[in-house]
Amino acid sequence: MATIGAHGIMARLPAGYEGRIFLRPSAGVGVTYPVAQFGTFPLPDDIGDFGSGAVTIMGPLDVFATLFEYGPESVGTALFARQGMPKVLSPDNFSPVMLRRGIVGQSGTQWFFTEAGRPFSLYAVLGSHALRNSLVPKVNALIASLTVSQTSAETSGSGPQWN
């Protein structure tokens, strides 16, 4: 089991997963925050924060997930009122209409929450909605492997971590 960590996010990758944790380069304006991406398939080098460019190549047995941090101004807002990352998801939490980009056969879920004083979104995509009963345990194994510390993006880790 490989372990990756950067920017106050750590993952003990479950078998079959690869992942990376990084900061998007700033476009010259504002601050960027950590993005952690995970998949049970080879992740392309250049994909969108929420998987554009990756979910289109997923197979029906694959899972993709993003842990995306928002700015500190989001803490305390209604959207991020949930305290703590969801620990266990059920097949009922996944729906084809939850996808950022609808791809026939896939389904997704998105959760907004605050963990260790930091606002996040967890977005997960299943390669097959019909197989969600067997795929959701893969997502839950990933969630169980994730930890977030109070360390801010500006003071932790200097570069991306991949596995």
Compact summary:
The chain has 163 residues and is mainly beta.
Q: What percent of the residues sit in helical stretches (DSSP H or I)?
A: under 10%
The average pLDDT score comes to: 90
Kindly name the structural category.
mainly beta
Assembly state = single chain
Number of DSSP helical runs:
1
Strand order, biggest sheet? 6-7-5-4-3-9
Over the alpha carbons, how many angstroms does the gyration radius reach? 15 Å
State the shape: globular
Distance between the termini: 10 Å
Query: How many domain units?
Result: 1
> What is the chain-wise order of helices and strands?
EEEEEEEHEE
Strand content: 25-35%
Largest sheet at a glance? 6 strands, antiparallel
Q: Segments where pLDDT lies below 50 for 5+ residues?
A: 153-163
Q: What's the β-strand tally?
A: 9
Describe this protein's structure.
- The protein is mostly beta strands.
- The chain has one domain (3-162).
- It is 9% helix and 31% strand.
- The chain has one helix and nine strands.
- The protein has one helix spanning 132-145, and strands spanning 3-6, 9-12, 18-23, 34-39, 63-69, 107-115, 118-126, 146-148, 161-162.
- Strands 6-7-5-4-3-9 form a six-stranded antiparallel sheet, with helices on one face. The chain has a three-stranded antiparallel sheet with strand order 1-2-8.
- Strand 1 (3-6) and strand 2 form a beta hairpin.
